[in-house]
Amino acid sequence: MEDIRIETFTLGPLETNAYLVMDAEGAKAFVIDPGAGPKRLLERIEALGVKVEAIVLTHAHFDHIAGVEEVRRACHCPVYVHDLEADWLTDPRKNGSARWPDVTPPVAAEPAEHALEDGMSLKLIGREFRVIHTPGHSPGSVSLLHGSHLFGGDVLFRMSVGRTDLPGGRTEDLEHSIRNKLYKLPPETRVYPGHGPQTTIGFEMTHNPYVPALPQS
After folding, report:
1. Tens-digit pLDDT profile for residues 122-155
2. Residue-range domains of the chain with CATH
3. What is the rounded CA–CA span in Å between residue 137 and residue 119?
4. Which of 22, 89, 122, 198 gives a 20 to 30 Å CA spacing to 4?
5. What's the pTM?
6. Strand runs (DSSP E) across 24-171, as ranges?
7. Residues 12, 98, 140, 74: is their CA dihedral positive or negative?
């Protein structure tokens, strides 16, 4: 039996995946990347009667943070983000919302209460989640690992990868993050991406056309 439960909510104009991660008993939870219009997510939290302990951000682009304040106020919980993007929460220019007025109004949130660091063990819902710094799509991108579950944000998608042409993005960093960090994980590791369907590390090592696994020497 799995020791965590995961529900996915696709939110906002860019169809961003928000995740409600719960303990097996459904008593405690945390939210990953609450995008715009999180009403369905909040209704589900209320229906379950689950206690939300935190909001964890894989990165601070507007489509991943637009629902932060609404969820934080409703659930009375702190926010975690990598220090490299701490000021993106409060600045629509940095989180990208000021760049696309036809897609979104300016997005800003109050500062995060806690910083994420590479290698740290984050204890939530009575479980340990390892923080892996995976820059490339953005400088403060992180992935969150628990057992065979990886919440990867916009780093690795099913047969695709995150874009690197936004401020702070860098193709070389993205490839390094995927090959030297994510592809080192067991092939059965399930990837819960920021957009689109789930995948596995093994599938991407074999089929991803953008960052194929290098041959073993």
Report:
1. 999 999 999 999 999 999 999 999 999 999 999 9
2. 4-207 (3.60.15.10)
3. 19
4. 89
5. 0.96
6. 28-32, 51-56, 79-82, 114-116, 121-124, 127-133, 142-146, 149-153, 156-157, 160-161
7. negative
